[in-house]
Amino acid sequence: EAGVTQFPSHSVIEKGQTVTLRCDPISGHDNLYWYRRVMGKEIKFLLHFVKESKQDESGMPNNRFLAERTGGTYSTLKVQPAELEDSGVYFCASSQGLAGIYEQYFGPGTRLTVT
Amino acid sequence: AQSVSQHNHHVILSEAASLELGCNYSYGGTVNLFWYVQYPGQHLQLLLKYFSGDPLVKGIKGFEAEFIKSKFSFNLRKPSVQWSDTAEYFCAVKNNQGGKLIFGQGTELSVKP
Question: A residues 27-86 near B, CB within 8 Å?
């Protein structure tokens, strides 16, 4: 069974540019989560999809971040325009069934560097 | 708001030493507790979890953790570490309704051969 995959693994962009991160969850997993780890800090929740619907987006930092999950399969996280403080590692995780019960499986992360 | 505190940022041990990593959380309701590990170059993976029942939970690779409700703690232990346990360890909590995980800052463990 394929795990959670993320693309790209690393992205370097300039301040003001746009970047789109992609996450492919494990097949059949209804729940998809985005997290972010800024260097030296804890991993922080960004948002949670159940199928194609946003269940909880309380962690999204501001309106420069836009997440979508068309058709309830893969998800994208767009940052537009990127700022220096957006640098960090963006993790995606997925889980099956009821969100409160099942283990979240994490992807390898996308390391975003904004210069 | 929920929060998780891990007591140590970096722990250095020799092989065969015993390990205990501290984790405290703040939340008044029912919680689910987790320890995740990230080995160098690998994904975050679940070591163990506590949902209910026996507060002493056993995970993979000889790790265990004890939930002490009165202390809001969920410390991770291993009697004898190996060089291959070198990794970063994360404690996480979520309430029993939602899905989002609240993580601690992480503890980097270095085991000397």
Answer: 31, 33, 35, 41-45, 48, 55-56, 58-59
Question: For the purposes of burial, counting CB atoms within 10 Å of the CB of B11, is it exposed (0-12), middle (13-18) or buried (19 or more)?
Answer: middle
Amino acid A99: pLDDT: 60
Cβ–Cβ gap B99/A104 under 8 Å:
yes
Q: Cα(B94)–Cα(B79) distance, rounded to whole angstroms?
A: 27
Listing DSSP states for A31-67 in one string gives EEEEEEE-TTS-EEEEEEEETTEEEE-TT--STTEEE
pLDDT by residue (tens digit) across A49-99?
Answer: 999 999 999 999 999 999 999 888 999 999 999 999 999 999 999 998 776
A 10 A CB-CB count for B76 gives 24
